[in-house]
Amino acid sequence: MLDERVRVQRGSDRHRGGEPGEGIDSRYAFSFGGHYDPENVRFGSLVACNEERLAPGSGFAEHPHRDVELISWVLAGELTHRDAAGRTVTLRPGDLQHQSAGAGIRHTERNAGAAPLRFLQLWLEPATAGGEPRYTVVRSVADGEPYEVPAAGARLWVRRPAAGERVGLPPAPRVYLHVAAGAVRLGETVLAEGDAARITDPGREPQPVAVAGAAGTELLVWEFDG
Predict the structure, then answer these.
(1) Who has the most CB within 10 Å: 84, 111, 141, 198?
(2) Count of Cβ atoms closer than 10 Å to residue 132 Cβ
(3) Confidence band (pLDDT; 50, 70, 90) for 203?
């Protein structure tokens, strides 16, 4: 029986969006763009978790953002980022990109490579509007070391457990677990690649524990302060 504190969303149940005719296949975990579900707007400060699939040569034309923390995580292929500050950066699996939009930015995200690209695009709402934009890339994020997003009261843990290894969840008010690769068992529920779980009050007994089902499992574990 699934713990009442846990809400599972299968990757196959995400809303399909994007522009397939232009090589863009988007899968939304929350309300996004023209897709609105009043029961599925946010979780903690997380307001978007999109899996984007871009064919070679396709991508998002230059567009603006403000007052949002943008996190990108590459699952397969290469993501090329360009912005109005003159940066051109190529990201590969294991790299983390963080763009604090602040009072305003403009950027493009494209697949300039020869292979299909899959990446996660995550949006977090900051506690305070405005401020100077900031850009950070962390190459080859290490297992078990948190990446802090203090503006949104959030931190990200990347976990790569061995088969059968148990992964304890942070005792934060809210935890968002996304299976980037492989599979895990959460209680009696198996989560496969692309599935996610939203967990409220994981520090309360009995504590949910994720058990890796196979070698090569990779988990993105977000914890939110409020």
Answers:
(1) 111
(2) 7
(3) confident
Of residues 166, 223, 213, the one with CA closest to residue 192: 213
Do residues 65 and 101 make contact, with C-beta atoms less than 8 angstroms apart?
Answer: yes
Quickly count: other Cβ atoms within 10 Å of residue 76's Cβ: 13
Token duo for residue 147: 């990446």
| Helices assigned H by DSSP within 46-103 | none
Alpha-carbon distance of 9 to 216, in angstroms, equals: 21
Contact criterion met (CB below 8 Å) for 31 and 37: yes
Q: Encoding tokens for residue 162? A: 């061995």
Q: Which residues, at least 6 apart from 54, have a Cβ–Cβ distance to it below 8 Å? A: 23, 24, 25, 77, 110, 111, 116, 117, 118, 119
Q: What is the rounded CA–CA span in Å between residue 212 and residue 188?
A: 13
Whether pLDDT at 70 is above 70: yes
Domains defined along the chain, listed by start: 6-224 (2.60.120.10)
CB 102 within 8 A of CB 130: yes
Is pLDDT above 60 for 1?
no
Reduced to 3 states (helix: H, G, I; strand: E, B; else coil), residue 13 is helix
